[in-house]
Amino acid sequence: MKPIVTAAEMRAAEAAVIGGGTSVETLMERAGEAIAEAAWRYAGTAPALILCGPGNNGGDGYVAGRLLRERGVPVRIAASAEPRTDAARAARVAWDGPVEPLADARPAPLLIDALFGTGLTRPLDPSLGDALDRLAGAARYRIAVDLPSGVGTDDGILLGPVPRFDLTIALGALKPAHRLQPSAALCGRVAVADIGVPVTARLGEVARPRLPPPGPADNKYSRGMVAVIGGEMPGAAILAATAAQRAGAGYVALFGGGPGAPAALVRKDIGDQAALSDPRLCAIVIGPGLGRTEEARAALDRALGTGKPLLLDADALSLLAGRPLPRFVAPTLMTPHEGEFLRLFGRIEGSKVERARLAAARAGAVVLLKGADSVIAAPDGRAAIAPPAPSWLASAGTGDVLAGIAGAMLARGLDAFDAGCAALWLHGRAAEMAGPALIADDLAQHLAPALAACG
């Protein structure tokens, strides 16, 4: 996974490098080089206006301006205030060109926002925010340095109005705001610039999983046997079961459910407890289309009593809400959307990552909090954010498909955290391949090529 670091973690990483003998000026030069290179590749020789703030983010902007000018790019710099750090002052002196008051600056085809980067905690001054909005609105290309000015680094909230950027240069590492909504939607494409600051974090970006294909010694049971327990809405359970098949499970049994499923899907009676006790069964998926009747509650209790790895989704989560959570004895992955999360765990304060971590610790299970910025967290504190997913996943049934994929990953023997990460990646990749007119049924058909990319 690519590490995702908080503002405090990034400051600590930079301090460690500086303590080891690398100067702030050296780091600033590296950052400026990365910004200039990205701007050159993205906008070529388009005339640039760089907005510089008073801190080291502004210093990065002065360095980028000097280097772009050396490449022949017409560059103007506008500042919101005088530099306040020694490194930023030195960068401004090295720029050796005019600096306009930001309030008076005229637009340019390329706008580079180097006003405030990581660590901003309050809204921009209204006059500054208005000037940024005016200049960004008139630009053809918009680049943000580290983060768009006006977003919260660790939670992705908007501290005030923030314009939309085409490209954001993340300095050193990704920050939560690059992947959490609503700020992620304003960052545009995010490129990580290596500035020579090693980072470590317990939060990362979900990466392509390593899923070797079956070998000559494998059979349908060694590839993983999955049970999907249906209920009142058979279509949802069929979607989950089909997805589990397409995601590589060797044997999928659907307990209950209606017509229309693949012929390879094994049918079982919804009350067949003996089948749920099959020692070859590797994982149970329950919730999609289950319903909230007494029969559904009984089916959930049977599943919880098996001691098998569990994927709990949709109605299964709603049935658990309002009662003490069971003690899970096997790997368990819960996949709530925001409404289900609220019903199950109540209101938890903090960023989406913090909320998912607290919920996972409380449940003793891995929690995958779904959305445009899906977050997964384990009880031990591991957490990850999914890469940006296609917006057309906002369609009925796509969550059922995710549940089936995750069930197949559990059946492969992955722990619940890794299973959820793998499912998120495959789900997003299949959506990209299916295209913007997809319906949930299409996702399963594109899982085979998505899975092939993981071999």
TrEMBL record:
Residues annotated as domain YjeF C-terminal: 203-454
Cross-referenced PROSITE patterns: YJEF_C_1, YJEF_C_3, YJEF_N
Pfam families linked: Carb_kinase (PF01256), YjeF_N (PF03853)
Binding site for (6S)-NADPHX: 56-60, 117-123, 146, 236, 289, 337, 400
Keyword Ribonucleoprotein in annotation: no
YjeF N-terminal domain: residues covered: 5-203
An example Gene Ontology biological process: nicotinamide nucleotide metabolic process
Cofactor(s) demanded: Mg(2+); K(+)
Origin: domain of life: Bacteria
Free-text remark on how the cofactor is bound: Binds 1 potassium ion per subunit.
Binding site for AMP: 370-374, 399
Known catalytic reactions: (6R)-NADPHX = (6S)-NADPHX; (6S)-NADHX + ADP = AMP + phosphate + NADH + H(+); (6R)-NADHX = (6S)-NADHX; (6S)-NADPHX + ADP = AMP + phosphate + NADPH + H(+)
Residues binding K(+): 57, 113, 149
Subunit structure: Homotetramer.
HAMAP family xrefs: NADHX_dehydratase (MF_01965), NADHX_epimerase (MF_01966)
Function as written in the Swiss-Prot or TrEMBL entry: Catalyzes the dehydration of the S-form of NAD(P)HX at the expense of ADP, which is converted to AMP. Together with NAD(P)HX epimerase, which catalyzes the epimerization of the S- and R-forms, the enzyme allows the repair of both epimers of NAD(P)HX, a damaged form of NAD(P)H that is a result of enzymatic or heat-dependent hydration.
PANTHER family: ATP-DEPENDENT (S)-NAD(P)H-HYDRATE DEHYDRATASE, ATP-DEPENDENT (S)-NAD(P)H-HYDRATE DEHYDRATASE FAMILY MEMBER
Name the UniProt record assigns to this protein: Bifunctional NAD(P)H-hydrate repair enzyme
Species per Swiss-Prot/TrEMBL record: Sphingomonas oleivorans
Gene, per the UniProt record: nnrE
